[in-house]
Specification:
The chain is mainly alpha-helical. The chain is built from 2 helices and no strands. Helix 1 packs across helix 2. The longest helix is centred in the middle third of the chain and has 34 residues. The chain is rod-shaped. It starts with a helix and ends in a 5-residue tail after the last helix.
């Protein structure tokens, strides 16, 4: 029932799209901030 509503209705598809976008942003921020923290470690100073 829930899967049919999620994939079969307009509201369900928009919800699924929103969930995927939030996950993609979280993954991007994770790798972006990890890279920035590594840069800070290499230089030994804060960029504040």
């Amino acid at each position: 029932m829930a899967w049919k509503l999620l994939f079969g209705s307009d509201v369900g598809l928009m919800s699924l799209l929103t969930i995927l976008i939030v996950i993609a942003i979280a993954v991007y921020l994770y790798f972006f901030l990890r890279r920035k923290m590594a840069e800070k470690d290499e230089t030994g100073e804060s960029r504040g």
